[in-house]
């Protein structure tokens, strides 16, 4: 019997190349070998966007189209909407009794995000909601509601998975051996840098290429990419290892071209403008089949609805079965 894999994405915007080369490639690789449930985590998205529900609703469909476009097969992956599975909310309530506020505040991922919020809204921390602080508990419910055994994550998400494992151990110590401790599967590229060299990429930083970006947008972003600051003139030798243009060539170009680019860069026979123009073409070629698949779903929204409905029905059935075991263990199967 195949193991169950559970992963989720918050629908807060379209996917960019960082998502594709990180989690996305992992998803495509794993979909053949597991019973795969992919959660569109609209409830978790509302922890950051509770005052903008229209954005979350729109992005549920946007991110689903992106995921289908990168090669996830709806015959192999159960796409489901988090808010359509009430068992997750029920399990979150039960788990909230097993985790202290102090433990949530010590979670490295949560600490980082709280610090970012304090920088944006002031140092008092008054902008931190109960829902935001508790989202690791909700994530634990996401995973265990489907008896998830394997969870694809980036390295920054490992503390959240460890919190889930702690909750599972606590639950089992009280109510008996009911839940499985999930294992992490790290993607080959755990994090992709932005075009500006930043370790993080995103819309607010303007350093990410999105799967939906058109040719003019890609051109503008690539032409602003950071290169070797020591290369002043066109024929100056440079270090490709500190150049974000070369970094992205290695992601989207073929090996022969990459080797040529590296050699010419070091010898000073390649200018940065030429290199950026070649990257633009390579990126367009790389994204073309993805954007063509996405266009199909854009033009056929009823197909996206069918995929989400089918996957949500399968997920709900799985969650109902799991919750029967949980309630029995907790002596609340009245």
Q: Total number of helical segments?
A: 14
N-C termini distance: 31 Å
Biggest sheet, spatial arrangement of strands = 1-2-3
Biggest beta sheet summary = 3 strands, parallel
Helix content: 55-70%
The structure class reads mainly alpha
Low-confidence sequence ranges: none
Radius of gyration, in angstroms, nearest whole number: 22 Å
Q: Taking all residues together, what is the mean pLDDT?
A: 90
Net shape:
elongated
Find the count of extended strands (DSSP E, 2+ residues).
5
SSE ordering: EHEHHEHHHHHEHEHHHHH
Strand content: 5-15%
SSE arrangement:
Blueprint: E1 4-9, H1 17-30, E2 35-40, H2 42-49, H3 53-69, E3 77-81, H4 86-95, H5 101-106, H6 108-121, H7 130-133, H8 135-144, E4 150-153, H9 158-175, E5 183-186, H10 215-223, H11 244-252, H12 255-267, H13 272-299, H14 301-329
Parallel strand pairs: 1-2, 2-3, 4-5
Care to describe what's here?
By secondary structure, this protein is mostly helical. Helices cover 57% and strands 7% of the residues. The chain has helices at 17-30, 42-49, 53-69, 86-95, 101-106, 108-121, 130-133, 135-144, 158-175, 215-223, 244-252, 255-267, 272-299, 301-329, and strands spanning 4-9, 35-40, 77-81, 150-153, 183-186. It is elongated and about 75 Å long. The mean pLDDT is 90.
């Amino acid at each position: 019997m195949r193991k169950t894999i559970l992963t989720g994405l918050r629908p807060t915007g379209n996917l960019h190349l960082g998502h594709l080369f990180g989690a996305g490639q992992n998803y495509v690789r794993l979909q053949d070998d597991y019973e795969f449930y992919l959660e569109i985590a609209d409830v978790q998205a509302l922890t950051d966007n509770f005052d903008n529900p229209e954005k979350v609703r729109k992005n549920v469909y946007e991110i689903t189209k992106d995921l289908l476009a990168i090669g996830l097969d709806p015959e192999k992956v159960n796409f489901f909407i988090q808010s359509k599975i009430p068992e997750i909310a029920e399990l979150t309530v039960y788990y909230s009794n097993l985790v202290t506020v102090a433990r949530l505040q010590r979670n490295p991922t949560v600490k980082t995000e709280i610090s970012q919020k304090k920088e944006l809204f002031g140092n008092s921390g008054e902008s931190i909601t109960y829902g935001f602080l508790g989202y690791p508990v909700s994530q634990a419910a996401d995973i265990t509601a489907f008896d998830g055994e394997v969870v694809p994550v980036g390295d920054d998400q490992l503390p959240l998975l460890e919190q889930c494992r702690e909750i599972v151990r606590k639950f089992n110590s009280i109510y008996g051996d009911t839940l499985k401790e999930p294992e992490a599967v790290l993607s080959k590229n755990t994090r992709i840098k932005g075009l500006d060299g930043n370790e993080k990429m995103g819309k607010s930083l303007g350093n990410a290429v999105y799967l939906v970006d058109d040719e003019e947008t890609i051109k503008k972003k690539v032409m602003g990419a950071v290169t070797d600051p020591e290369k002043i003139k066109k024929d100056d030798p440079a270090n490709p290892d500190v150049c974000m243009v070369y970094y992205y060539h290695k992601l989207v170009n073929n090996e022969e071209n990459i080797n040529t680019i590296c050699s010419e860069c070091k010898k000073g026979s390649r200018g940065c403008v030429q290199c950026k123009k070649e990257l633009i073409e390579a990126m367009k070629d790389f994204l073309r089949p993805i954007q063509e698949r996405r266009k199909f779903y854009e033009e056929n929204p009823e197909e996206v609805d069918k995929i989400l409905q089918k996957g949500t029905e399968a997920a709900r059935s799985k969650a109902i079965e799991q919750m029967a075991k949980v309630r029995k263990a907790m002596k609340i199967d009245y």
